[in-house]
Design brief:
707 residues
Length: 707
């Protein structure tokens, strides 16, 4: 059996206190994948109260574990796992599934058939007993047929039963309306074409709704009996609460798809089914059916999460949206910055508006570099108005308000805040963002957001901006203090800065490390590297990122060029200083700004990656994103020292300035990195931006309601 030409595969397992069963699921994967090629494993844990996470890390240390921080339901977990696997087909598994050896290849082959969007295996019990997993489209007549005849009798007549009961039907591959969602593989094309799973259902009917949507969009749901999975299952049949939730969600789904009148008919049909069984079985046997009736009469609009809060809505509509005041500008800064990365991952689940930087000071001659260029690019950014820049994320919006960044004057600050707030509120209302989670990265946004109604306020403390050389330090410090004292949550990437400010933040402070897009930052072969890079002779010592005079030690770069004349120094990024002092050396190649999409191809051609930072307060409180990007490319890294680097000493050569740095680069060129390239890359595979976004959402969304 040939392996089809498919996108890479990711296995997503959603857990909730699944410690007793998840080991068996993980242990079955190696044999199940035989002949099908490798797969990423993503385990999304919905705040398990047992040792689930510890068991996963022990049994499958290579698995990426996403801890959502709360039990938001199965659909929310699946969505988080899918978001962590961009570009992949996704196999969704319950933790109590045991895949039979060789089961993945038939599913991959089924998914490769024209028009197929979802493939599902044959399900059995532990003894091999067939589980009836195939279903017809839910209708009111079928629900009535099951109420009056029973599910198995009604299932013999397609018009009267939803359940496919003929055992012979399970011996042949076929297209069906939907299947029980304990194990199902979704094609990347289907995932890209449809909205995510609807998170309002919490449990049950979310897979039904998704598969019906897939069929209506032209993606067939295909059953493949050559693939076999053992499903332990059984909890729904013994839990009155889960049985009741399943019954109620059948009605909710019908109401959402066909409107309230037909939803009421389905409610009567399902209620009749539960009433008949409650009367027939009586006593303890009818307990679950009586529980279902109590949910159906009256029927709550949507189920509550375990903590008592409402289940979130479909990601792009009913959930609390996000408004992010960024410290960068989408249209001309590097899009690898943390606020952009976090918001892109959040936008897979929620509607997001990114507000481009409103600045910290008006550029002035004698105080700022490249004044006209800075003003010009900001005006061009403002002219972009509001846009959706990412086709694959229709809920992701970017706007550039027109600011008046005269922050030294109290009156000018008030006028600027009113101006920017009016623009942001107008766009937010047009997008339906009435009470969003507001995330602030740039402290000058404090004046703007202070009176805004919101679900929660998160201060993304990525840097100490008052240390920025061009800032009005007293003013920026006062704005930072306001955010530190009044935000619902303060998230840090620097443990040093978090410790220094703990007196102001207390238990509202949280460490949220940077992530990395490991699918994007993968090593490209030489044939895929840019021509201008390939034209530069090796060995190449490289740097990509902003070449800012308050971050980068240009003296150290020049020293590298002079003392390693046989080495090409490749610099990629926008510069805030004249570069002639470096480019006059024949072995220095400054390629200027390159789009984020091209950076991994350039980095793949480096023999050594460097981080030659200055020793100043800004750097001491930093945690450069490029570190994980270098590591994801499997590159050996040489860096000057800063506190957050302590956890990377086994992978990064840490050196002081001058001779020590040059010697470290020379040794790395001679001996290679401290670890093999695969091990270096493997060390950051669990650090996805989607897992960081899940942590952020878990912090922000349980916050108190609008105020």
């Amino acid at each position: 059996m040939a392996v089809p030409d498919r996108p890479p595969l990711a296995v997503v397992i959603v857990t909730y206190s699944s410690g007793k069963v998840v080991e068996g699921c993980l242990r079955s994967l190696d044999a199940a994948l035989a002949g099908a090629g490798p797969a990423r494993v993503v385990v999304v844990d919905n705040a398990s109260a047992d040792d689930t996470v510890e068991r996963v890390r022990e049994v499958a240390p290579e698995a990426e574990v996403i801890q959502t921080g709360r039990n938001a339901g199965f659909a929310a977990g699946v969505n988080a796992g899918i978001a962590a696997a961009p570009g992949c087909d996704v196999l969704v598994l319950n933790p109590d599934i045991r895949l039979a050896p060789g089961s993945v290849l038939p599913l991959r082959q089924a998914l490769a058939l024209p028009g197929t969007g979802i493939a599902a295996p044959r399900l059995t019990g532990e003894t091999g007993t067939l589980h009836l997993s195939l279903r017809r489209r839910p209708t009111v007549p079928r629900a009535l047929g099951e109420a009056l005849l029973g599910g198995h009798r009604a299932g013999r007549v397609p018009a009267l039963g939803e359940l496919v009961v003929d055992p012979a039907a399970y011996d042949r591959p076929q297209v069906v309306d939907w299947v029980a969602g304990a194990a199902w593989m979704i094609s990347r094309a289907c995932l890209d074409a449809l909205d995510p799973l609807d998170e309002r259902y919490f449990l049950y009917s979310e897979e039904t709704e998704y598969m019906l949507r897939a069929g209506e969009a032209g993606f067939a749901v295909r059953y493949e009996p050559r693939a076999v999975a053992v499903h332990l299952g059984g909890e729904q049949s013994t839990s009155s609460r889960l049985w009741a939730l399943s019954s109620a969600n059948r009605v909710r789904m019908h109401r959402e798809r066909y409107g309230r009148p037909r939803g009421q008919l389905m409610r009567l049909a399902v209620g009749l089914n539960e009433l008949v069984r409650a009367v027939a079985r009586g006593g303890a046997g009818g307990r679950r059916h009586r529980a279902a009736l109590r949910q159906l009469v009256p029927l709550r609009e949507w189920p509550l999460l375990p903590g008592g809060e409402p289940a979130p809505g479909r990601p792009t509509t009913a959930s609390p949206g996000y408004v992010c005041f960024s410290a960068q500008d989408w249209w001309y800064h590097n899009r690898a910055h943390s606020d952009f990365q976090l918001m892109r991952s959040v936008a897979a689940h929620r509607k997001v508006l990114v507000v481009n930087s409103i600045g910290m000071r008006m550029p002035m001659p004698g105080r700022s570099t490249q004044v006209l260029r800075r003003v010009g690019r900001k005006l061009r950014s403002v002219a972009m108005l509001v846009r959706r820049p990412l086709r694959e994320l229709p809920g992701f919006y970017v706007m550039s308000p027109l600011p008046l960044p005269f922050y030294g004057s109290p009156l000018a600050r008030r006028v600027n805040a009113l101006l920017v707030r009016a623009q942001v509120l107008a766009v937010s209302r047009a997008l339906g963002l009435r009470h969003p989670v507001i995330m602030v990265t740039i402290p000058t946004a404090w004046d703007v957001v202070r009176p805004m109604r919101r679900h929660a306020l998160v201060f993304n403390r990525s840097d100490r901006h008052s240390s920025f050389p061009e800032s009005d330090r007293p003013t920026i410090e006062a704005l930072e203090r306001g955010l530190l004292e009044r935000s619902d949550h303060v998230v840090y990437v620097s443990t040093a800065l978090m410790g220094e400010e703990s007196g102001m933040t207390g238990d509202r402070a949280h460490f949220l490390d940077h992530g990395v897009d490991t699918d994007h930052f993968r090593r490209r072969p030489e044939s895929e590297q840019p021509a201008d890079l390939r034209a530069i002779p090796g060995p190449r010592v490289g740097f990509f990122g902003a070449l800012d005079d308050y971050l980068v030690d240009f003296d150290l770069l020049e020293r590298l060029a002079v003392e390693l004349p046989g080495v090409s120094l490749v610099l990629i990024g926008d510069a805030t200083v004249p570069m002639e002092r470096l480019t006059r050396h024949p072995n220095v190649h400054w390629l200027g700004f390159r789009p984020y999409e091209q950076i991994p191809a350039y980095g793949s051609g480096f023999d050594v990656a460097i981080m030659p930072w200055l020793d100043n307060p800004w750097i001491r409180h930093s945690n450069p994103i490029k570190l994980k990007e270098y590591l994801a490319l499997g590159l050996p890294v040489v860096s000057t020292d800063f506190q957050e680097l302590a956890g990377y000493a086994d992978r990064v050569r840490i050196a002081g300035g001058g001779d020590l740095f040059v010697d470290a680069v020379r040794a790395t060129l001679r001996d290679g990195g401290l670890q093999p390239a695969d091990a270096i890359r493997g060390s950051v595979l669990g650090a996805s931006w989607s897992s960081r976004a899940a942590q952020l959402m878990a912090l922000a969304e349980p916050s108190p309601g609008p105020r």
